[in-house]
Amino acid sequence: MADRQYKNDAQTRGYKVMMLLAGNEFSGVAPGELAKALRTSPGNITRDLSVLQQLGLAEQLPHDTTRWRLGPKLIQIGLSFSRHLDEVRRRAGEIEQRYSREAH
Asked: Domain of 68?
């Protein structure tokens, strides 16, 4: 099967918006700053943020609705992954103990 690379500019830009929002959960980022950083129009960023907001991936700051941050959904996904890893580690530890016991 041929190695294909698919590219969708809007999707790529949406992912880049999320990466720029990361680490700014308290101060947020203004749409104009995002547009400048991504070298795109403010209209594109407005649409991107709207889609991300509908999905719970971005939200406006409660105290300053001109600025945006990552939404709870993305954080919940990360926490779910972390809990899953903890469970896998616990199970792996149980298996390791079971197989490493000395036979009597």
From this structure: 9-100
Q: Which residues of the chain are modeled with pLDDT < 70?
A: 1-2, 102-104
The number of folded domains in the chain is: 1
Q: Residue 37 contacts by C-beta under 8 Å, 6 or more apart in sequence?
A: 20
Report if residue 45 sits inside a domain: yes
Query: Which pLDDT score, from 0 to 100, does residue 103 have?
Result: 56
The reply to whether 3 falls in a domain is no
Q: Are 39 and 13 in contact (CB under 8 A)?
A: no
